[in-house]
Automatic annotation (TrEMBL):
<dbReference type="Pfam" id="PF00234">
    <property type="entry name" value="Tryp_alpha_amyl"/>
</dbReference>
<dbReference type="InterPro" id="IPR033872">
    <property type="entry name" value="nsLTP2"/>
</dbReference>
<keyword id="KW-0446">Lipid-binding</keyword>
<feature type="domain" description="Bifunctional inhibitor/plant lipid transfer protein/seed storage helical">
    <location>
        <begin position="32"/>
        <end position="97"/>
    </location>
</feature>
<dbReference type="GO" id="GO:0006869">
    <property type="term" value="P:lipid transport"/>
</dbReference>
<dbReference type="GO" id="GO:0008289">
    <property type="term" value="F:lipid binding"/>
</dbReference>
<keyword id="KW-0813">Transport</keyword>
<keyword id="KW-0732">Signal</keyword>
<dbReference type="InterPro" id="IPR036312">
    <property type="entry name" value="Bifun_inhib/LTP/seed_sf"/>
</dbReference>
<feature type="signal peptide">
    <location>
        <begin position="1"/>
        <end position="29"/>
    </location>
</feature>
<protein>
    <submittedName>
        <fullName>Non-specific lipid-transfer protein 2-like</fullName>
    </submittedName>
</protein>
<dbReference type="InterPro" id="IPR016140">
    <property type="entry name" value="Bifunc_inhib/LTP/seed_store"/>
</dbReference>
Amino acid sequence: MVKVMWGSILALAAALLLVTVENIPMAEGVTCSPTELTSCSSAFMSASPPSATCCAKLREQKPCLCGYLRNPALRQYVNSPNAKKVASSCNVATPNC
């Protein structure tokens, strides 16, 4: 039951991300696209450690994190406890926006 609920939440989040991607500006030559972080989805949704690919993508998207935090549709995911654990595991500092 819980897995089904999280799956539904993840699907909703993915749909919201796709809708809002067009509204997120580019930062420092990086295309800000939350879909670039799909390799982190299992780490965001569970206690599993992030993969090397996830960490690389998170570092790549670091200039975009403030934009994600300002976006009401994305803020809850970027600010979640698991997202903060993933960022810490990948040595990506949480930005002060």
